[in-house]
Amino acid sequence: MTSENRNGQVVVRLDGVRKEFGQSVALDDVSMEIREGEAVAVMGPSGCGKSTLLNMIAGLDRPTAGTISVHGDDLGALNETGLALFRRRRIGMVFQFFNLLDDLTALDNVALAGQLSGASARESRKRALELLGELGIADRKGNYPATLSGGQRQRVAVARALMNKPALLLADEPTGALDRESGGQVMELLLDLNRLGQTLLIVTHDPRLAQHCATRLVEFEDGRIARESILERVA
Fold first, then answer.
1. Domain limits at 207?
2. Which residues contact 126 (CB under 8 A, 6 or more apart)?
3. Bridge partners of 73?
4. CA distance 174 to 53
5. pTM of this structure
């Protein structure tokens, strides 16, 4: 991690976060920070709490104990409407299986995110087209998801996640459903975004993705942070 990352503004702070599901403990006393410009990869075996962590930071679930703040705003102080607005305006999310709407074109899938946050249809379509162009798939703007390759669908999903210029981009196994070539393209895309200043949190089973894209690795075991390490990207 560069000194700039280390001294940057704290985007996410978790303090003593615990999450219980009945008798099961998914997260146990987790404290961590993510600073502006970092690319943090979270790894660990299935069931270790990675996806729960992501859901907590996205405001999709609430901790049993402890606090989570994003840019100083305590998520625990927000009601469900406030959390929905927080997700639309502050967080971008990329999923393993894309989560695109099959009956909308690539352009409309991306533009919808802007409209849901209050932008006009015209403004939303303009920015959506710009993003598709930046990600190299403007020529697929009229295609429906079923007619796109896996890599192209993930690029549409990334464009949608970036629609509202989020403080943090969350990626849950973003290469998990892709072949090696398409996965490599998505890795390069995430790396380029981080180099442009986008803060990333990536949950992955793929050590290649972590090593290629991340500046810091956080490894979980049994709901706890087992170890952290700084990663040196290979040019």
1. 3-101+165-230
2. none
3. 70
4. 16
5. 0.87
Question: Using CA atoms, how far apart are residues 220 and 205, in angstroms rounded to an integer?
Answer: 12
Query: Which two three-digit tokens encode residue 221?
Result: 């075991």
For the stretch 70-105, pLDDT in tens is 988 899 999 999 998 888 888 999 888 788 999 999
Residue 201 has pLDDT above 90, yes or no: yes
* Inside any domain, residue 21: yes
Q: Which residues on adjacent β-strands are paired with residue 15?
A: 67
Residue at 156 is within a domain: no
Task: Indicate which CATH number applies to the domain containing 222.
Answer: 3.40.50.300
Q: What angle do CA 87, 92, 94 make, to 5 degrees?
A: 120
213 in a structural domain? yes
Residue 115 maps to a domain: no
Count of domains observed in the chain? 1
CA 165, CA 154: separation in Å to the nearest integer? Answer: 18
CA pair distance 182, 150, nearest whole angstrom:
7
As a whole number of angstroms, the distance between CA 62 and CA 127 comes to 32
Question: How many whole angstroms separate alpha carbon 209 and alpha carbon 38?
Answer: 15
Q: What is the CA radius of gyration of the chain?
A: 17
141-191 tens-digit pLDDT: 999 999 999 889 988 999 999 998 898 999 998 888 788 888 888 888 889
- DSSP-derived letter for residue 9 is P
Q: What secondary structure letter does DSSP report for 111?
A: H
